[in-house]
Target: Nicotinate phosphoribosyltransferase
Amino acid sequence: MGESTALLTDRYELTMLDAALRDGTAHRRCVFELFGRRLPGARRFGVVAGTGRLLSLLRDFRFGDDELRFLRDERVVDAATLAFLADYRFTGSVSGYREGELYFPGSPLLTIEGTFAEAVVLETLALSVLNHDSAVATAAARMSLAAGDRPLAEMGSRRAGESSAVAAARAAYIAGFGATSNLEAGRRWGIPTMGTAAHSWTLLHDTEEDAFRAQIAALGTGTTLLVDTYDIRTGVETAIRVAGTALGGVRIDSGDLPTVAAQVREQLDELGATGTRITVTSDLDEYAIAALAASPVDAYGVGTSVVTGSGTPTAGMVYKLVARQDSGGGWVGVAKASTDKGSKGGRKSAFRTLDAGTATSELIVVSDGFEELEAASSHPDARPLQVPLVIDGEVDAAHEGPDGVKAARAHHERAREELPVRALALSRSDPAIPTVYVDATPAG
Amino acid sequence: MGESTALLTDRYELTMLDAALRDGTAHRRCVFELFGRRLPGARRFGVVAGTGRLLSLLRDFRFGDDELRFLRDERVVDAATLAFLADYRFTGSVSGYREGELYFPGSPLLTIEGTFAEAVVLETLALSVLNHDSAVATAAARMSLAAGDRPLAEMGSRRAGESSAVAAARAAYIAGFGATSNLEAGRRWGIPTMGTAAHSWTLLHDTEEDAFRAQIAALGTGTTLLVDTYDIRTGVETAIRVAGTALGGVRIDSGDLPTVAAQVREQLDELGATGTRITVTSDLDEYAIAALAASPVDAYGVGTSVVTGSGTPTAGMVYKLVARQDSGGGWVGVAKASTDKGSKGGRKSAFRTLDAGTATSELIVVSDGFEELEAASSHPDARPLQVPLVIDGEVDAAHEGPDGVKAARAHHERAREELPVRALALSRSDPAIPTVYVDATPAG
Model:
């Protein structure tokens, strides 16, 4: 078991638990749903990420001595609630979208079923993980589409909180990036890592030539040399003089990249280094990558913009009670009345309808209760989007760890192939497919 | 000791270390500097945050068996480098701005002195922590200024990665927020926590009245009731009927807040609940808070915008080699040539010049070497901005833990009082004071 995650929680969840244990509503069975009312940044599709991480963090959602002592000392809850928390273990069930899946407004990304007491306390943890990771994955997928077949590496750790950086590397990889600079992401999730040298490497040496020679001595001529510490033209000339025409690559981290890339390619070719690759890494985002499509660039490194969701650092998802038992034990769908239309009561089943393999709608079948939902049977090409993640408190380990990441990345690649062409444009717009609600509540 | 932080590192730092151990430059003494070339979001001042966290993470920057095994298996470095890392412990010195201090373009927020080998590997960790925490603190300070004397609580955990959320709560508190919803921030850093109930609390119950009665039974009439689940007017009426006119407060989480706040205040007063406070929490940022200055609002809760830096989720600081020993043991200032003017070689000492207590400039004295810098003696009102944080590998514990947070918050409050009036405007502009460089390199 890892460090406790139980206090990664907003205080009001424990305050509600405390009050609900007093009035007995704590034991009402409930359905909470995690979803986004809209897509981050008015994009055409979203990408679900974080699910596998959340499941592991859920295993560690236990209140140990430190956590209980804090809650007692600060009088956050009373003695009966402390006793409940000491024994807390989520015994309910969670179903949801596969990690890497695409999503649209209203998609029920997670459905959490259990007592109010056990489900209400997971709100903050679930949202923190999915909001962050999905924001990164959604931005990363657009960059990956813009890069096409050219390799794309995530190198933004320094522009994100030190733990979020590891999660961001993971989310970017799921959404199509090929590697990360973050070593912990490599160790923890099996993601390929990359990186050779910074400007400090050149500055450390008495001359640029000394720096290049030392790097090649250590890493071989297949390495990538950073050529823009002083003058790029001189840097490229020195690089090839030192390494020979078999030099693996050069990296450019400044300047007007379309111009500079073309000049460097011409210079490399003139020097006979026709196989030396050009990597660019200066403040790239999906728009800059798209603008370089016709430039002689071989690989991209993206930092700030991918780890910060390219202008939308959080996916804005919410965690809402959508159905509960009433005092008589029957089920009722519930929703905040004064909300906009994206918040809909009732338990939901979700399907992606397809026409010849291309997505046509996000079909969401709504029910007040727990009966099996079969409305999608009228859509023979509808692909069910939800899978069991936790069953009666048992986490499905297939979603966790490096294997979970690999599966999520593969699933994302498949799901992306279903996108209609209009989903690939980078401009702000409406979702690529409409969300269609079908009411399955039995008459009477 | 906590979990190892050693792999929260970009791979190229270890690649450079590996090559530098081979060619001997690893042992050259170096000065690295952490600074921002510009202020996040074209604001008028920045707020330094994260320093105390970084010092604690630095204690845990050790390569254990897991980390070394990964580096060996992935062939990131060779055997000699693995041996170096197994014994790694930072033995250099760090000086820097106090946490909570204001900063401006070029301010040397951290100066790291040691061998290239021991200092180069700290780049990512130092930047991750300061870039995230300072972006949040800088946004938070503006919100705190806009809120004036009204209490301000941070409740954005759900919109940030689960670990960054704890750091964000801490940064916001240092920059003037009064409380957080994040329980772990309360436990770890001693920050006051707050929160009562969500919409799910009302939806859990058969009626809003049931929910209010249960909450009051648990938390007393001094609690704050969330009144906008259904109809706000009915909610307020029910709240006062159930709680009486001694009700502590009502919270509004939707609608056009200036209008709704005025209506609710009028209704509360008509009902005789003249002491019942109004808290608003719907998508606030510094501009919305400022726009509510004339509204009858008693407290603010801010979520997304503070934890995401209100449009600028990273402070964009960099970590650069600015001076090093040459092969003869002498010191040379170094800087990337092709950079914009914000990157300046040489070791720096920083002072804030004041005129009758108001800041007039950020004075940065530049030197190639290690001699004592006394140029500020010509400015009798200059306040030195750097303090020792790590001396010969020994971290000054005064900056860590809850005591460090308390000191940082107090220092921020004092530093803010020095700001000229033009610094308080919210619009995008130039820094409130200029950065002035003075060259102290001895002639010859």
In short: Chain B is about 35% helix and 20% strand. The longest strand of chain B covers residues 358-367.
